[in-house]
Amino acid sequence: MKQMATTMSLSSLIIDDGNTAVLEPEAEALQMPGRLRDKFGRAITDLRVSVTDRCNYKCVYCRTGNEGAQYTELPIEDYLRMVRLFVSLGVEKVRLTGGEPLLRSGLVEMVRELATMRTAYLPDGTFVGETFAGETGRRGLPLDIALTTNGHLLEGLAQPLRDAGLSRVTVSMDAVDAETFAAITRVPRSFDKVMAGIRKAQAVGLGPVKVNCVLLRGFNDGQIEQFAEFSRREGVIVRFIEWMPLEEDRTWKRETVISMEEIVERLNAYRPLVELAPHAASETAKRFTFDDGLGEIGIIAPVSRPFCGHCSRVRLTSDGKMRTCLFSQSDHDLYGRMVRGGTDAELRAYIRRIVMQKEARHHIGEPDFEKPSRNMVHIGG
Ligand code: SAM
User: Fold this and answer.
1) How many angstroms does the Cα of residue 172 sit away from the middle of ligand 1?
2) What digits encode the pLDDT tens for the residues 239-298?
3) DSSP label at 117?
4) Is the pLDDT assigned to residue 37 strictly greater than 60?
5) Per-residue pLDDT tens over the stretch 172-222
6) Share of the chain above pLDDT 70, in %
7) Can you give 173-238 as a three-state secondary structure string?
8) For ligand 1, atom 14, which residue shows the shortest CA distance?
């Protein structure tokens, strides 16, 4: 059965109050089915799957350093069944994360299976349903399969992951010198391992690697210019991310966040920046290069410039719970329904219902901000 996806202009749903985009429920989106959309008409095309909440780093802005994993891990085939459901509803991009995903056995096999899946919708919006690699006839496109990792184990895994079908990798790296890096991760001699992982990923064709850096005032904000040099020297895309209140020990303060404005000012003083066009309206990073075209810097500013109006994401935690926002107050037990014998049709209906509850936006820094029910490491960043 062929079905045309509803076409809607998201911009018509966004009322700009001069500060934050406010979303209004969209009548059309409330009428199922079609591809997965929330009540504001935002299409959900991006699924982040945490495959463990164990991590071999104890980054100071993320973890207390005393607590370990808190949630269970599922068999890889169970994550795959849930991913298949999301793909059948319109998800096109799957990002594997954690915790630290490279700690998880079976990850390479998981990527190999993901690489056989095909999108259920063609770029023109035509519904083609569930298809796989190798099938003949009209079928969807390969998924965009991404991985977010701290890079510690990447040197040994980059080639197998690439061979299995991984599309690209993002490595988190919050300093470009060994001493600051070890102070942030609280793991000695970690910097060289991550550098080796980044270079290996570049060498096996997973480049350009994105290198994510969370800047904290008084900790690593002295390194902005060195990160720019690093991008130019190593051919990686450096992305600065504003620190969000998602850490285990509740130390977040707005004053510690280095805002997009400040980063742009510092980079411009280092060398004139040139803004790059966005790849897509939903892109979270503002992208820049320098006046000579060498290096690429992205700035992701969820605190100073929220992009919730364009959010296309849902998350699946390592224990199989759906989360509709990083800052959600609760999880939704998709896995529980699955193990109790839910059919694919029932589980799809459940996913649609939960996505309808997706929050309009987060409330970071506002008086009514409530801490989310899980911290970043236990959600999957
Ligand atoms: N272990 C993997 C890694 O290091 O990339 C994946 C999980 S980690 C939680 C994902 C990303 O979240 C990392 O880039 C990390 O820097 C970022 N992160 C963690 N806590 C954060 C916070 N409170 N605000 C912004 N980013 C955060």
Assistant:
1) 7
2) 999 999 999 888 899 999 999 999 999 999 999 999 999 988 778 899 999 999 999 999
3) B
4) yes
5) 999 999 999 999 999 999 999 999 999 999 999 999 999 999 999 999 999
6) 92
7) CCCCCHHHHHHHHCCCCHHHHHHHHHHHHHHCCCCCCEEEEECECCCCHHHHHHHHHHHHHHCCEE
8) 172
Give the C-alpha separation, 127 to 145, whole Å. 21
The finding on whether 52 has its CB within 6 A of some atom of ligand 1 is: no
Q: DSSP H helical segments within 2-66, as ranges?
A: none
Closest ligand 1 atom, residue 377 Cα: 9
Q: Which residues pair with 48 in a beta bridge?
A: 95, 315
Contact (Cβ atoms closer than 8 angstroms) between residue 102 and residue 149: yes
Q: Assess whether pLDDT exceeds 90 at residue 38.
A: yes
Probe residue for ligand 1, chosen from 104, 168, 173, 212 as the CB with the greatest number of ligand atoms within 8 Å:
212
**How many Å lie between the centroid of ligand 1 and the Cα of residue 348?**
29
Largest Cα separation within the chain, whole Å, is 60
Tell me, in angstroms, the distance from the centre of ligand 1 to residue 368's CA.
24
Name the 3-class secondary structure at 312: coil
Please give the distance, rounded to the nearest whole angstrom, from the Cα atom of residue 227 to the centre of ligand 1. Answer: 17
Ligand 1 pocket, residue 379 CB under 6 Å: no
Instruction: Give me ligand 1 centre to Cα 174, in Å.
Output: 10
Q: Rounded to whole angstroms, what are the CA distances from 143 to 92, 111, 148, 167, 168?
A: 5, 10, 16, 9, 11
